[in-house]
Amino acid sequence: MDDKDLRIEALEKDLEMHRAIFDSIFNGALVTDEKGIITHFNKPYGDFLGVDPESQIGRHCTESVVNSRMHIVARTGEPEINQSHNIIGKKMVVQRIPIKRDGRVIAVFGQVLFKDVKDLSRLASELKVLESKVKLYEAELLNLRSTRYTLDSIIGVSRTIRELKQEALRAAATHYPVLICGESGTGKELFAQAIHHASNRKLFPFVRINCAAIPKDLLEAELFGYEKGAFTGARSDGKPGKFELAHQGTLFLDEVGDLPLEMQPKLLRALEDREFERVGGNKIIRSDLRIIAATNQDLDQMMADGRFRKDLFYRLNVIPINIPPLRKRKNDIIPSAEYILRQLAAEANLPGISMDKSAQAALRNHQWPGNVRELSNVLERTLSALNGKTIGLSDLPFYLHQNRKPLSNGGSSSLKAVQAHIERESICSALEQTGYNKVKAAELLGIHRTLLYKKIKKYAIPLEKKPGENRAPKT
Ligand SMILES: Nc1ncnc2c1ncn2[C@@H]1O[C@H](COP(=O)(O)OP(=O)(O)OP(=O)(O)O)[C@@H](O)[C@H]1O
């Protein structure tokens, strides 16, 4: 066989294949020339119309197919997609596509998409059912996976809080790392959850890791996971770390200031390379996550002291959110207290609870070392012991009364000294009220136990009641 024969054989095979494809177009198809004369008519269309496909070739399209518009499409050159077409008592859905060469129509391809428009409506209603199911599952997933708090859960009327909420909303629209700084109880986790919730990652996990609460040697395995037998006590089948678990979601690195120095470059590398290995493993794992870190520590000071790496700080601090303590946004205190009271009262089914002026003044004057958490705890305690419907000064815990008295703090009146004095007094008072139970005192103050210990040490507060000392607690 010479070259030409080979080419002819290939072309014949090609033609055969095209014929087979054309005859396999499920719901029928035809082709006309530029005048509407049928050049191709497939078998399924013949079966559907009850005609012999071969004998349709050479006829005008309107003779073969009632209401045909193939010749019109040939004239206009405009495709007609998903059009209804009445034929043999049925409404079909068809498409007619002009085939052009050098801008001129040379043929028209027509195809039946649905033999009966009812098929399409059935599909459409099935799709509707599926869509509503998807919505339902999305809502369930959101419930299961997502966060408890949204931006609406953040209370505060001050300009600062309103601006921070705007900032959080802007952050949610990006994938950049966010660093939230603020004292304990200012709502750092609340903001982190709200950002996650407002982002397009909200259907994926929000994974939290408290860098201060995990022993140093376990932190790497917690973050990156481990392979079987990585260390003594490791689970025999290995375990994914928080980085893996947060895939497509958000990883919240709480208390990032407490991340041990030796762990910092490892975290930085994982953030920069966007990949990591499990402890004891050698497989590279990639995780698509957004980082939100939070701390109540002064990272500037820590960097100056060499306790926090600058490169890690810059990596985390792409979008900074600094939440000021409650005492620095005093006009948030009463609205927040009222909001929390309304919530607590509704939960306890106690309508119409209010605060008198003296109680409001005491709340405004208090320094709130535990911030909103402390405010919430104080109100909860107060409400649980309240007789009547109005909270007065005497209903508030004793340590709140003292802030209204002139201060005797060794004569110093610098803001720092006054703050330190009040903080010390509040801690002493909370310890007394709770019978020197540190867990309960920390709870009352709305701070973490470790922070309470730090402050007890800082102010050299005795860890038990001195004999003879009698400062009667309120409750
Ligand atoms: N602006 C706020 N609006 C409503 N609730 C708040 C606000 N700030 C804090 N809270 C409440 O105070 C409590 C502590 O908040 P959160 O855990 O977010 O604080 P945090 O700054 O992360 O504290 P920590 O540093 O101790 O972990 C939560 O119950 C939270 O709902």
Describe this structure in words.
By secondary structure, the chain is of the alpha/beta class. The protein folds into three domains: 15-114, Beta-Lactamase; 151-324, Rossmann fold, CATH 3.40.50; 328-458, Orthogonal Bundle (Helicase, Ruva Protein, domain 3), CATH 1.10.8.60. 45% of the residues lie in helices and 16% in strands. The chain has 20 helices and 16 strands. It has helices at residues 3-24, 43-49, 53-56, 61-64, 70-76, 117-145, 159-172, 188-198, 216-224, 242-245, 264-273, 299-304, 310-316, 333-347, 357-365, 371-384, 398-402, 415-433, 438-445, 449-458; strands at residues 29-33, 38-41, 80-87, 90-101, 104-114, 178-181, 206-210, 225-226, 239-240, 250-254, 275-277, 284-286, 290-295, 319-322, 354-355, 390-391. α14 (333-347) crosses α16 (371-384) and α18 packs across α19. The N and C termini lie far apart (108 Å). The chain binds adenosine-5'-triphosphate (ATP). Adenosine-5'-triphosphate binds at residues 153-156, 182, 184-190, 296, 372-373, 376, 448. It holds the Pfam family PAS. Residues 154-384 form the Sigma-54 factor interaction domain. It comes from Desulfatibacillum alkenivorans DSM 16219. Residues 14-59 form the PAS domain.
